[in-house]
Amino acid sequence: MIKSVLVYLTHPHVDAWNFQPRHREILQDQVPGLEVTVCCHSKEFLDRLPEAQAAAVWFFKKEWLEKAPQLRLIATPAAGRDWIAVEPRDDLQISFGGFHGPMIAESVTGAIFYFLKAFQFSREMQEKSRWAVKKVSDRLQSLYQARVTILGFGRIGQTIGLALKPFGCQVTAVKRTPIQEPDYFTAGDRVVTVENLPEVLRETDHLVLVLPGGEETQGILKREHFKMLKSSCYLYNVGRGNVYREKDLVAALEAGEIAGAYLDVFETEPLPAESPLWQMKNVLLQPHLSAASPQYLELFVRELAERMNSGDLG
């Protein structure tokens, strides 16, 4: 039974990603008898690590394990495995955040309607203090009966599909291995494997990428895959930027092979100033913040408390 946790969760740019006293109170209240020690910088964290049973961190370096003989749990709010450089073992569990789905689904839904409802163009007309009704109306589209393909249908991908279904779209989920269809699927929705990707891309109106990083997903979308998409298709990437080469995406956007893209992750982060993506009017960029919200760390500590109480830390 873990009786103490060492917390080192700070972020220099995003206030919502900094552990606050209220988060400590929630964690101690939800896990009776738990001692929570909060560190404000790496030196303090490393000084205290030798006595720690559990660590709640954004990142953990492999060499730190030598300083942590009592460590039994590493917990991170992040969903991706990118910043925890150790593997679980019999005496060490690693817990990744599983609460991101609703927030990322909000971001994807917002981006879809940013494009479909021509909000950028309407804003440009507003700044000119004149209406161009026909020019706006000709750009308006609907999600109703559109085909949304979600490439990467884990917990987050399934939550995105659930959020979009009430708008009347049809969902194609692409997984490496077959799974049972979610309860919210209706006629026309389906789950396919990556072998069906070429066929699926040709009928896709909105392509949502929710793939993790790593060797298995490196460059999974090639230049020829972009050419398979409809010229009216929009792409949304809230997974990782390694799944295609940026130059292939830029070429597809410049050639009009796809209509536009919402990008929250990139091949190189932060996005280099010389990237042509910055200047593209049919591209909406965010700096890896699709899951950010004021409730972020509260959701994390409540999830962590539940996992610690149940003993299921996966």
Describe the protein.
With 314 residues, the protein is α/β, with parallel strands linked by helices. It folds into two domains: 4-99 and 293-310, Rossmann fold (3-Layer(aba) Sandwich), CATH 3.40.50.720; 101-285, NAD(P)-binding Rossmann-like Domain (Rossmann fold), CATH 3.40.50.720. It contains ten helices and twelve strands. The strands form two sheets. Strands 8-7-6-9-10-11-12 form a seven-stranded parallel beta sheet. It has a five-stranded parallel beta sheet with strand order 2-1-3-4-5, sandwiched between helices. α3 (101-116) packs across α6. The protein starts with a strand and ends with a helix. The model has no long low-confidence stretch (mean pLDDT 97).
Within the CATH hierarchy, at the fold level, what is the topology of the largest domain? Rossmann fold
In whole angstroms, how far apart are the ends?
Answer: 16 Å
Largest beta-sheet details? 7 strands, parallel
Quickly count the helices.
10
Strand content: 15-25%
- Ranges where pLDDT stays below 50 over 5 or more residues in a row are none
- For the record, the CATH class of the largest domain is Alpha Beta
CATH architecture of the largest domain: 3-Layer(aba) Sandwich
Which term fits the overall shape? elongated
Structural class comes to alpha/beta
Write the element-wise H/E pattern from the N-terminal end onward: EHEHEEEHHHEHEEHEHEHEEH
Query: What is the helical fraction, as a range of percent?
Result: 25-40%
Mean pLDDT: 97
CATH superfamily (homologous) name of the largest domain: NAD(P)-binding Rossmann-like Domain
* Quaternary organisation: single chain
The beta-strand count equals: 12
Radius of gyration: 22 Å
> Strand order of the main beta sheet, please?
8-7-6-9-10-11-12
| The number of domains | 2
